[in-house]
């Protein structure tokens, strides 16, 4: 009997140890389940993260205009829309072409020995650049010798720089030797200083306009100075004259060595931290906002401050902020620019260089943009005060540094349609169609107004749709539309043979069906985008507030044509005259740099 009792006791001991083991294993499984549940996001949280919401606490400070969206909430894959973020579609098939035709006579054969044209530019750096470019063409039309242009030193920008302080004057003269005779100074007349006759010409004066108005005076006085020379030449000219514009703007106008060297240092420092970078011309300064007449939610303080600045321009009428914003006439806020870029696929790791003056609202206004793109730079952050000192008291030289960094960027973003934006857009088209993003402000306004009611995917999709045709791709703007400096279509050629060869290689390798269909769809979308390009002809008309009066000395230089037209024709000054002459004397449609 003793043996069975021991077996029974042994069985109970096994059972006694089995229950704790099962309990321990169950506890471990339960712990793992709870741990994984904590790590996994809840469906409600996920839905919350997918919506763009205003930070209610910020509305009291900003008047409801600011949107506080931490960058971690705005994660959009760059590959979703099948677009290369750092290059333009089909750009390899287009190139700049500005050589003169065989019919374009050499300067030495057509320049009259006793005709001198002097011009005085107006405005900031890029406004002056357009004046210099057009001055060369005007001298060619008049068969005159051009004296190196004088830069504006008296207007709003108050910059005392001479031409040679900003541009390489010797290169300028030498590079254009075969096109126009250029000298540094007006020669003495009978051993005495020669005072040229001063006059004005209308805005966008055609070649016929110059022959009718300026040539008779030039033949009589022999030296003529045209003042306030900005956008004083027609947008549409003979092909050879348009190509001359391109040779001046893109090849002859080279910055002075000191500016080039400092600009190249800034570019190198941007490249050291990242393979690619975006340059943003923000243009959110108080004067820009005041001129636009837009309202950004700052209450009475904003209305008072900007209203006071706006009164500098006596010709401006009362503004309608809501209408201006609906029509796309208001610059995007820094945050809206950031949201647009994130929606287009640029992640928070992208490096951004910001070219801007004093931003209205300071760091508080910039904070949302910096939250979306923490790698945020300007010339003041990547260069020492000592390095910038030689340039800092000259607005045009500082603008030239920003110009270089923006020109060399992988992507250039402009928040306005001013002179720097136009010049750089045209230059980037000419040199390979590097991506240049212009916000389609009219359409994006509706998206920003409704962003609280859509997911990030919906927001991104709409931004992509509305930005098609505003990204700097080839042929997205019809030839002849907009300012020539922005869209130099005459100077851009297409390599049709290379495109045909690529299509042949696709067919040969059996990759043509899918690729060609996709390429065709893309081209169809691009062509549709051109049709709906609503902002291309819009020019904010920001001028120097002090520049609202005509010159007193024969402001429009009106004289009878007499026999000068026959002489001009016989000398081959122009072969294609417009049937109408520009008489537009309205306030210059010029936006400061």
Could you give a short description of this structure?
With 593 residues, this protein is of the alpha/beta class. It is built from 25 helices and 12 strands.
Structure description:
With 593 residues, the protein is of the alpha/beta class. It is built from 25 helices and twelve strands. Strands 4-3-2-6-5 form a five-stranded parallel sheet. Strands 9-8-7-10-11 form a five-stranded parallel sheet. A two-stranded antiparallel ribbon has the order 1-12. Strand 10, helix 20 and strand 11 (436-437) form a beta-alpha-beta unit. Helix 11 (257-273) crosses helix 19 (395-408) and helix 12 (286-292) packs across helix 13. It is globular and about 110 Å long. The protein starts with a helix and ends in a 23-residue tail after the last helix.
Q: Tell me the radius of gyration.
A: 31 Å
Strand arrangement across the biggest beta sheet = 4-3-2-6-5
Low-confidence stretches: 1-13, 35-80, 511-516, 522-541, 548-592
What class do helices, strands and sheet pairing give? alpha/beta
Give a quick account of the main beta sheet: strands, pairing sense, barrel closure. Answer: 5 strands, parallel
Measured as a percent range, the helix fraction is: 40-55%
How many DSSP-defined strands?
12
Distance between the termini: 111 Å
Number of helices: 25
Shape: globular
The residue-averaged pLDDT reads: 79
Beta-strand content: 5-15%
């Amino acid at each position: 009997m003793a043996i069975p009792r021991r077996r029974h006791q042994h069985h109970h001991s096994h059972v006694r140890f089995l229950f704790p083991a099962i309990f321990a294993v169950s506890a471990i499984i339960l712990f793992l389940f709870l741990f994984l549940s904590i790590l996994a996001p809840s469906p409600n949280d996920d839905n919350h993260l997918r919506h763009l919401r205003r930070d209610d606490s910020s509305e009291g400070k900003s008047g409801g205009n600011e949107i506080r969206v931490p960058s971690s909430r705005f994660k959009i894959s760059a590959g979703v829309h099948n677009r290369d973020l750092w290059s333009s579609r089909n750009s390899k098939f287009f190139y700049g072409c500005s050589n003169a035709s065989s019919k374009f006579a050499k300067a030495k054969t057509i320049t009259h020995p006793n005709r001198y044209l002097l011009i005085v530019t107006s405005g900031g750096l890029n406004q002056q650049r357009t004046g210099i470019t057009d001055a060369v063409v005007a001298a060619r039309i008049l068969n005159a010798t051009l004296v190196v242009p004088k830069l504006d030193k008296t207007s709003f920008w108050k910059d005392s720089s001479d031409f040679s302080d900003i541009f390489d004057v010797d290169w300028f003269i030498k590079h254009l030797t075969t096109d126009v005779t250029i000298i540094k100074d007006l020669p003495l007349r009978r051993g005495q200083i020669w005072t040229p006759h001063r006059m004005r010409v209308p805005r966008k004066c055609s070649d016929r306009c110059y022959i009718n108005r300026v040539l008779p005076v030039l033949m009589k006085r022999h030296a003529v100075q045209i003042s306030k020379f900005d956008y004083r030449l027609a947008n549409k000219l003979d092909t050879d004259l348009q190509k001359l514009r391109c040779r001046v703007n893109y090849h002859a106008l080279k910055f002075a060595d000191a500016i080039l060297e400092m600009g190249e240092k800034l570019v190198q420092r941007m490249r050291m931290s990242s393979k690619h970078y975006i340059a943003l011309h923000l243009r959110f300064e108080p004067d820009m906002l005041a001129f636009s007449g837009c309202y950004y939610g700052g209450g009475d303080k904003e209305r008072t401050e900007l209203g006071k600045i706006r009164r500098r321009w006596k010709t401006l009428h009362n503004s309608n902020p809501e209408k201006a914003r609906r029509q796309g006439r208001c610059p995007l806020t820094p945050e809206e620019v950031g949201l647009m870029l994130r929606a287009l696929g640029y992640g928070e790791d992208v490096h951004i260089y910001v070219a801007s003056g004093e931003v209205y609202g300071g760091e508080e206004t910039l904070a949302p943009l910096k939250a979306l793109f923490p790698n945020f730079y300007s010339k003041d952050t990547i260069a020492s005060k000592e390095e910038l000192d030689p340039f800092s008291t000259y607005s045009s030289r500082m603008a030239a540094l920003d110009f270089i960094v923006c020109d060399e960027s992988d992507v250039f973003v402009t928040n306005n349609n001013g002179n720097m934006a136009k010049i750089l857009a045209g230059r980037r088209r000419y040199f390979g169609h590097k991506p240049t993003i212009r916000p389609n402000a009219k359409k994006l306004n509706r998206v920003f107004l409704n962003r609280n009611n859509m997911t990030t995917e919906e927001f991104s999709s709409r931004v992509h749709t509305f930005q098609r045709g505003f990204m700097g791709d080839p042929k997205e703007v019809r030839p002849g539309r907009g300012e020539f400096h922005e869209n130099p279509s005459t100077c851009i050629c297409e390599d049709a043979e290379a495109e045909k060869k690529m299509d042949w290689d696709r067919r040969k390798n059996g990759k043509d069906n899918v690729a060609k269909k996709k390429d065709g769809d893309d081209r169809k979308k691009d062509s549709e985008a051109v049709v709906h390009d609503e902002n291309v002809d819009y020019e904010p008309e920001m001028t120097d507030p002090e520049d609202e009066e005509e010159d007193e000395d024969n402001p429009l230089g009106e004289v009878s044509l007499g026999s000068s037209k026959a002489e001009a024709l016989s000398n081959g000054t122009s072969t294609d005259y417009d049937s109408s002459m520009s008489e537009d004397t309205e306030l210059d449609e010029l936006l400061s740099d």
